[in-house]
Automatic annotation (TrEMBL):
Residues 2-241 form the ABC transporter domain. GO terms for molecular function: ATP binding. Signal peptide: none annotated. InterPro entries: AAA+_ATPase, ABC_transporter-like_ATP-bd, ABC_transporter-like_CS, ACT-like_dom_sf, MetN_ABC, MetN_ABC_transporter-like, NIL_domain, P-loop_NTPase. It comes from Actinoplanes subglobosus. It holds the Pfam family ABC_tran. It comes from the Bacteria. Keywords: Amino-acid transport, ATP-binding, Cell membrane, Membrane, Nucleotide-binding, Translocase, Transport. This is Methionine ABC transporter ATP-binding protein. SUPFAM superfamilies: ACT-like (SSF55021), P-loop containing nucleoside triphosphate hydrolases (SSF52540).
Length: 323
């Protein structure tokens, strides 16, 4: 649904040149929820704005729904953007318009007839849980309600792609959870492809099926959450499942074990102990739900040196669960 190749965007002043996005490749499948994780200044927002051409890249290509965005002229680009909704960190609502008026604004721009606008607005407000608030003004709304208005407005033209620019970073934890539930529900009910940027690992953990870690304009790593959890040395896996417990134990082999999907429900550690009559110690770990996937990560200690545990380690490798 979204294909990016060799994307580069540089900002220049008289004295310096900064590559905000530096040769990024990205592939987001239809119906996927893809999170780009990074700290402020990593290049996340610039990347997102290049997807809908609010920022013109200096090099590379951007394709959305099979349409090459970088080649479109102004009128063609306006039409293409109707298939791409966007929600913002600070809501970007018009204070002089009611909730209904804010949502209708996106339809006015496209020339939608008034009766059709009215029906669509009512449908969208019900979809985002704001029935009964159509005549309220933004100043009368909570932060979560404002973001729901922003989401309704982004969906007005029935886009297949939704871009989220730090949509929950201005919200408290409880409200954040409600907005993430809504986005996940919209993804499943409408088949929306969602590309979101965030600096919060909890957002990635809650709704993303794939993710990338961005630093200094580049992707440090990218892939499905399941694949990254199984990748040795993955930063994302380490941050999603920070492991307590020592990395070295005298007289023992310390192993980090990662499982996902059906394997997360299997008693792998117990089976390991039974099969090899091994006194396995669990030093730390947990099992959690990531989007729709169950995953677990543990740090365990096997008595003896690695040579003494070759069969046990091979057992884990064959199960595809070591990291």
């Amino acid at each position: 649904m979204i294909e990016i190749s060799g994307l580069r965007k540089t900002y220049r002043s008289r004295k310096v040149s900064v590559a905000a996005v530096d040769g990024v490749d990205l592939s987001v499948g239809e119906g996927e929820v893809f999170g780009v994780l990074g700290q402020s200044g990593a290049g996340k927002s610039t990347l997102l704005r290049c997807v809908n051409m609010l920022e013109r890249p200096d090099a590379g290509t951007v394709s959305v729904g099979g349409q090459e965005m970088t080649t479109l002229r102004r009128r063609q680009l306006r039409i293409a953007r109707q298939g791409i909704g966007m929600i913002h960190q600070h809501f970007a609502l018009l204070s002089s318009r009611t909730v209904a008026g804010n949502v209708a604004f996106a339809l006015e721009v496209t020339g939608t007839p008034r009766a059709e606008r009215r029906a669509r607005v009512a449908e969208l407000l019900e979809l985002v849980g704001l029935t009964g608030r159509a005549d309220a003004y933004p100043a009368q709304l909570s932060g979560g309600q404002k973001q729901r208005v922003g989401i309704a407005r982004a969906l007005a033209a029935r886009p297949k792609v939704l871009l989220s620019d730090e949509a929950t970073s201005a919200l408290d934890p409880e409200t954040t959870e409600s907005i993430l539930r809504l986005l996940l529900d919209l993804n499943r009910r409408l088949g929306l492809t969602i590309l979101l940027i965030t600096h919060e690992m909890s957002v990635v953990k809650r709704i993303c099926t794939s993710a990338a870690v961005m630093r200094d304009g580049r992707f440090v790593e990218a892939g499905t959450i399941t694949d990254l959890l199984r990748t040795p040395g993955s930063e994302l896996a380490r941050d999603l499942f920070p492991l307590d417990g020592p990395t070295v134990v005298d007289g023992a082999t310390v192993v980090d074990v990662t499982v996902s999907g059906p394997e997360a429900e299997e008693p792998i550690i117990a089976e390991l102990a039974r099969r090899f009559a091994s006194d396995v110690r669990i030093l730390g770990g947990s099992v959690e739900t990531l989007a729709a996937t169950r995953a677990g990560r543990w740090r365990i200690a096997l008595p003896g040196a690695p040579d003494d545990n070759r069969e046990a380690l091979e057992f884990l490798r064959k199960r595809g669960v070591t990291s």
